[in-house]
Amino acid sequence: MTLIRSALFMAFFLFVTALMAILFLPLLAAPRKATVWMARGWARATLWGLKSLAGLDWHQIGDAPRGGVLVASKHMSMWDTLALYLALQDPAIVLKRELLRIPFYGWYVWKAAAISIDRGAGADALRHMVHASEKVLREGRPILIFPEGTRKNPGAAPDYKPGVAGLYGQLGVSCVPVALNSGRYWRGFWKYPGTITLEFLPPIPPGLKRRDFMAALEERIETSTNKLLES
What we know:
The chain is of the alpha/beta class. The protein has helices spanning about 1-25, 30-55, 80-85, 105-110, 125-140, 165-170, 210-230; strands at about 55-60, 70-75, 90-95, 115, 145, 175-180, 185, 190, 195-200. It has a 7-stranded mixed sheet with strand order 1-9-6-2-5-3-4, with helices on both faces. A two-stranded antiparallel ribbon has the order 7-8. The relative contact order is 0.17.
């Protein structure tokens, strides 16, 4: 049954993604908000298909932050980006520059939500990230970053990168940690029925030293994520 459900969802996902990517291509020449509208519609359709075809639902604990704030989330699957994009209304997402080179997907992400980073650029990458993030904050939008830089399997050892501390220190805003357990249910092609939990944790106030911030961020995210995985 899991194989059939997973295959049905994959077929639905590929069809909806291809259809919307082609049908709404003219939006790339329109104001950014038009692409945001399309992207949110795509995320809603995907999560609807996930629930209807694969039996995989989700619920949220805590209120999603609004306005100019840094949001740092655990990352286990593609689901995380979809759900957080909806929960945070209109976030800017820090992601690898290589993703913007993917036809259609990269074009829409660039238009709607991207703060791209070149991992080989060193200090220049941080300067670019901070400059782009300051513009987002002036617009009153949240910034979403996955501090480990890549997806992690449930139970894998944490590996938090310094980029999130650089943003936190340079921007002078609070940081909202996010825990989740999507990796229990979304495992590549395989989708297992159940309910994913997305949890917004109490914010870390601005002004902490880098070491203290990184310790607090990792402790909060990992402790809450492990509890969700065990529940």
